[in-house]
Design goal:
Distance between the termini: 26 Å
Helix content: 40-55%
Largest sheet: 6 strands, mixed
Oligomer: single chain
Number of helices: 20
Strand content: 15-25%
Length: 600
């Protein structure tokens, strides 16, 4: 649980070029420099960044096997063959399943969907489900968000006479041999995965929801349907999947998500409208934050605590009253999930402390009484607390399941490949994985993961990249600059909100806000002697309190709480936002990290 390292981003663009860029684009020098730091210099690139269009999306046919897969689907529709869409129980799997089920129904297909139960079946295609679908008369099987590693299951489906299409975005499995890496594909009739080495698609960081959107577009073209009539419904689902699966918000992902957020209020999907309503969200004010931290968790909660069918049924619903009922159920399930996750984090932290795992470079904990459905959430939180790659296993049987969440620089999927013989099943990508393991192999897996980890604990220390050093006085008085920053959204992985730094800020007083007094508002002395500058922090109250007590004891902290001035100065990293209250807009600074100022 070390302190974060702060790095100031470098700018390789000459001052004269930034000045010319500011003039050409009608920007302030500060705004031009910020864009230059982000690699945006050419006016055309800047225009494209702020006003991306759907014209920037890459043609679907560039995806290897996509056209072939769509022709197989269309033939099955026209021949009246039964199609099964086999998805996954997370937001990406649920939304991509919803897209393809809607599309195939609108084409007139006989289609059903199947999402495995997390508790009894686990992730991905399984042999029992394949046999059941075949016995029920399914003749074409389409996997979405899974299947790239399902060699035996796809082989079984082919032996049972099914046509199989795999559409997945996870890493292609490989074996390590003296000659190098040998990649393995399942024996499907068509395999769509941009991470295939011979796939010419120019952008690899797409999720299953985006693949489903591309397939939908091609199917509409081949099937002669009016794409303009229905595309927005599919596009919004693809955007939700992109944000929730933490895809890089660059290239076509950024274009699609920005467009979807701007047009989300126009979605015709009754289920999504109901989900927004029960969460009290205004469709005209939705941001990527609301997608990732409000809508996404509700969708995921269905598969975690009950059945992902609830969420798919919600998005397929043609009756608004029924949709409202399902949406309310998802909201309630998410509240249960929050409590389970919080309890799980506390239990795992206690296990780590008791077992000494905090000294490991890679944390692996088996918590038998933890619901497997929240293992991934708990792994993510433990990773944040200890700044280490983390695997959390749950369950009390001989075979236990779990999830992993990684830190920058540690390829979690490759780490499991190196321990392949210890695992019953695994899959995922660089930053997140799922695995199943025999309980007796857990200790050896922990040893091997730590032995093979080539990073030191110091190298895994989290880093905050600061875009610019910028005085808080100027930030608070720069509404036009704040508006430009807002226009840089959507923010997320690959397009983080800009961060700024200031140093030696004298704390004049603080104010604790919120029902639990965990929000802290700082008032800093204005170096221009024009009053006080304020900044707010939603997560740093406890950390700041500890800093103050270490500096001057509890007496100093109590003095601050009484509104008295003490001798303490901070260096801060902050974001610039626009706060709107009663139709009045003002610039608000949100502190993301802080430390005591050290006089040097």
């Amino acid at each position: 649980m070390g302190k974060k390292k702060w790095f100031l981003r470098g700018c390789r663009v000459a001052a004269a070029e930034i000045s010319q860029m500011a003039k050409d684009c009608g920007l302030s020098m500060t705004a031009a420099r910020l864009l230059a730091v982000r690699g945006l210099v050419e006016p055309a690139d800047i225009d494209m960044y702020f006003e991306p269009t759907l014209d920037l999306l890459h043609p679907p046919e560039l995806l290897k096997d996509l056209d072939k897969a769509c022709r197989l689907l269309l033939r099955a529709v026209r021949e009246g063959r039964q199609i099964a869409v086999f998805g996954d129980y997370d937001a990406d799997g649920i939304t991509s399943t919803s897209i393809m089920t809607l599309v195939l129904r609108r084409l007139g297909g006989r289609v059903r969907y199947y999402i495995p139960r997390r508790d009894s079946e686990g992730y991905g295609l399984n042999s029992e489900a394949v046999r059941k679908l075949a016995a029920d008369g399914v003749e074409l099987l389409l996997t979405l968000d899974n299947g790239i590693a399902a060699f035996e299951q796809v082989k079984l489906a082919k032996e049972l006479g099914l046509t199989v299409i795999v559409a997945d975005h996870h890493e292609v499995p490989f074996e390590i041999s003296p000659a190098g890496s040998i990649y393995k594909l399942p024996p499907a009739d068509a395999v769509i995965d941009p991470k295939q080495r011979d796939c010419q698609y120019p952008f690899k960081s797409v999720c299953a929801g985006m693949l489903a959107y591309k397939m939908a577009e091609q199917l509409y073209t081949l099937g002669g349907l009016d794409w303009q009539q229905d595309y927005l419904e599919y596009l919004v689902f693809a955007a939700i999947a992109t944000v929730c699966d933490i895809m890089d918000l660059v290239d076509e992902n950024r274009s699609l998500v920005k467009y979807a957020l701007a047009h989300l209020a126009e979605t015709p999907n009754l289920g999504l409208r109901a989900l927004l309503e029960v969460n009290g969200l205004n469709p005209l004010q939705i941001t990527s934050y609301h997608i990732g931290f409000v809508i996404g968790p509700c969708i995921n909660a269905s598969g975690r605590l009950q059945s992902a069918d609830l969420a798919v049924d919600l998005f397929l619903s043609q009756d608004y009253g029924h949709a409202q009922m399902l949406a309310q159920t998802l909201l309630e399930l998410n509240e249960q999930r929050k409590q389970l996750s919080s309890d799980g984090v506390n239990k795992v932290c206690a296990t780590i402390e008791a077992s000494g795992y905090a000294q490991d470079k890679v944390i692996l904990v088996h918590q038998p009484d933890l619901p497997e459905s929240v293992a991934g959430i708990v792994a993510g939180r433990i990773k944040e607390i200890f700044d280490r790659p983390t695997f959390i296993l749950a369950g009390q049987g001989d075979l236990v399941k779990g999830s992993g969440r990684s830190v920058e620089g540690y390829n979690m999927f490759n780490a499991l490949v190196e321990c392949d013989e210890l695992l019953a099943m695994y899959g995922g990508h660089y930053m997140a994985t799922g695995l199943t393991i025999d309980k007796q192999n857990i200790t050896e897996l922990r040893r091997r993961l730590n032995q093979n980890c080539r990073l030191s604990i110091e190298e895994m220390q989290p880093v905050i990249y600061v875009d610019m050093a910028y005085p808080v006085e100027r930030a608070l008085n720069g509404m036009s600059f704040a508006q430009m920053i807002a226009a840089m959204a959507p923010f997320g992985h690959g397009n983080q909100a800009p961060l700024f730094g200031d140093r030696d800020l004298e704390v004049r007083r603080i104010q604790l806000l919120g029902a639990d007094k965990q929000i802290i508002k700082f008032y800093f002395a204005d170096r221009f002697r024009q009053g006080l500058n304020s900044a707010i922090s939603f997560r740093k109250k406890d950390e700041f309190e500890q800093m103050v007590i270490e500096q001057g004891g509890d007496e100093m902290w109590q003095s601050l709480l009484r509104g008295q001035t003490v001798n303490i100065s901070l260096d801060i990293v902050y974001s610039i936002e626009i706060n709107e209250f009663h139709n009045n807009k003002s610039v608000q600074l949100q502190i993301k990290d802080l430390r005591l100022h050290q006089n040097r």
